[in-house]
What we know:
The chain is mostly helical. The protein contains twelve helices and two strands. Strands 1-2 form a two-stranded antiparallel ribbon.
Amino acid sequence: xxxxxxxxxxxxxxxxxxxxxPPLSLYRLLEPQVLADxxxxxxxxxxxxxxxxxxxxxxxxxxxxxxxITVLRDFSAARTPTAEQLSAIGLSKLTPLARVMxxxxxxxxxxxxxxxxxLAACAFTPxxxxxxxxxxxxxxxxxxxxxxxxxxxxxxxxxxxxxxxIVTSELFGVSTEFALQLxxxxxxxxxxxxxxxxxxxxxxxxxxxxxT
Length: 212
């Protein structure tokens, strides 16, 4: 069955062939049209390959709820890139970050996870949360009062960014004058959680954060 004539023109039947489906890789989130509406890509992943090896991310992408719960419950530690894995894909510079991540509660399995989670839970008893609620209200009022005289505000820079940063710094016992710096460090470190392949130029900044 031919697809072209001797003159080089395409055979009509070839014009009817469906275009190949675009790849399932999450790197397609870098495409503006996919980022604007990623849900068709997510739906394809769930339908065609719910446990998908993404060669660009060098990781498994799990998209069905029951599977995600299983991974979170039983394989948290396996989700953390080790120093050896990073070296295998040419990112040995990130070894210091990998050594920090494998110690974080988010990436630990029981019994280590249970022990650290139990310690963290002590800070969020009903009584402590109630007291924290009152303190957050005070902080929110103070931030609003500080811009009231201007009759205008930037909701993000004047309120939405500093409020959680101040609350977090107080929980950690860090002076509130360093709250925004703490938030900056956290944001830089968070780039390690899936974006380091996309932004290699950000590696020095992430490493500086881990050394601070």
